[in-house]
UniProtKB/TrEMBL annotation:
Keywords: Transferase. GO terms for molecular function: transferase activity. It comes from Candidatus Nitrosotalea okcheonensis. This is Glycosyltransferase 28 domain protein.
Length: 410
């Protein structure tokens, strides 16, 4: 039996989601031949412990260096100070990096991995190379385009790219060109072309509607048009996103625009319905009284509810995350309005805008105008989205498992 180590970078949820979709396929195709170990820290480590509660001995907690949260994504100022000084109760970043590399190296030594899969953890690439262990790195960016205001991040981009290069195989979790959503985030030099494989999106597949319709599904099923407004990210990012959404909703142009706001927080107290009468109801009460609603707030949507909302909505408002863009543009062929947090998001939304799949928005006024543009030019967006959807590759996990199997055999 082969032993595989999976190293998941704990900043954000995208790395975890991709790796868990991959794990499902590994269990389907290789479960009798491999023993999987996973390493991360913080909230992602806790999610791993919860998911793999029957085999906690294969889940390893190693603190990885991550930025400090700011009002909108990472705080460059605080993160820079934290390099040598303790900030916000966190030890100096330099000591965290040193300890994390030492602990990962010890884990390599004790477990004797036959192959490692790294999603976002570039330090593990370097350790694997030094030990002559085959290494797969999963990504959707390599030397991404930076905007003028972010020039100070360039040294970090170079450092990360040099460590990505150390992987045996670089897996791009996206459709092959010319349908690559993260194209503007990829700037591979010619010398790496043979290492790179565009395997397709790490989709979790078609959602099976196996349970009865929920109240929220029943409430929206006969509505002709509504937008799906997603709130994701860290606590401060979620707060600012909601404030911007509210400012847009209060404008005269948006007062009649139906919307569902997903808060991505398992807090039932967030669930409520705003009627056109100005009153607030619970979701079940709104359904029972057949309330003509204008806004539905929901803390957390189940996979089935999310699939229903995406199938019925007119458009989706998102931050530009790679996973969400694939699900919405490719899986549902719905236009997006993208409000970016990071340059990575900006590049991906701009790519979609350049192909008339969505609109990049950087201000509340832009967002309001974008909603109007999508309504007015919906047929134009739909034509382009249908073509993109036909070429949307969802076989990322299966193709990656085939690559891993070949690497282990060789």
């Amino acid at each position: 039996m082969k032993k595989i180590g999976g190293f998941i970078y704990p900043w954000g949820n995208g790395h975890f989601t991709r790796m868990m979709n991959l794990d499902n396929t590994i269990q389907d195709m290789m479960k009798d031949n491999v023993e999987m170990h996973y390493t991360s820290s913080g909230e992602i480590y806790q999610k791993l412990i919860q998911k793999f509660s029957q085999r906690k001995d294969t889940i390893h907690n190693i603190e990885m260096p991550t930025p400090i949260d700011g009002k909108k994504g990472p705080s460059v100022a605080l993160s820079s100070l934290n390099f040598l000084l303790p900030i916000s109760g966190r030890p100096p970043l330099l000591s965290v990096v040193t300890n994390y590399l030492k602990k990962e190296a010890r884990l390599y030594n004790s477990q004797k991995f036959d192959l490692v899969i790294n999603d976002g953890d570039v330090g593990s690439n370097a350790i694997a190379l030094r030990r002559n262990i085959k290494c797969v790195f999963i990504t959707n960016q390599f030397r991404p385009r930076l905007w003028a205001s972010r020039f100070y991040l360039y040294p970090g981009v170079l450092y990360v790219s040099k460590n990505i290069e150390k992987a045996t195989k670089i897996i791009v979790a996206d459709s092959p060109p010319p349908y690559t959503i993260c194209e503007y985030n990829l700037n591979f030099p010619e010398r790496l072309k043979d290492k790179v494989a565009y395997v397709g999106h790490f989709s979790n597949g078609v959602v099976t509607h196996s349970t009865p319709k929920s109240d929220i599904e029943k409430l929206i099923e006969n509505v002709d048009s509504f937008g799906y407004w997603m709130i994701t990210g860290n606590k401060s990012t979620k707060k600012i996103t909601l404030e911007n959404y509210k400012r847009a909703f209060y404008s005269s142009e948006m007062r009649g625009e139906r919307r569902i706001i997903s808060h991505a927080s398992a807090d039932p107290s967030l669930d409520k319905v705003l009627g056109n009468d100005g009153k607030t109801y619970s979701i079940s009460e709104a359904l029972e009284k057949k309330i003509d609603w204008i806004q539905i707030d929901v803390g957390f949507l189940s996979e089935q509810e999310k699939d229903t909302v995406l199938s019925l909505c007119k458009y989706a408002v998102i931050n530009g995350s790679h996973t969400a863009m694939g699900e919405i543009l490719g899986g549902k062929a719905k236009p997006i309005i993208g409000i970016p947090v990071y340059d990575e998001h900006t590049n991906q939304i701009k790519w979609a805008q350049d192909r008339n799949l969505g609109i990049l928005s950087t201000t509340v006024k832009h967002t309001i105008k974008a909603v109007s543009l999508i309504h007015n030019d919906y047929n134009k967006y739909q034509e382009n989205l249908l073509e993109f959807s036909r070429n949307y590759s969802t076989g990322g996990t299966k193709n990656t498992v085939k690559i891993i199997s070949d690497m282990l055999e060789k």
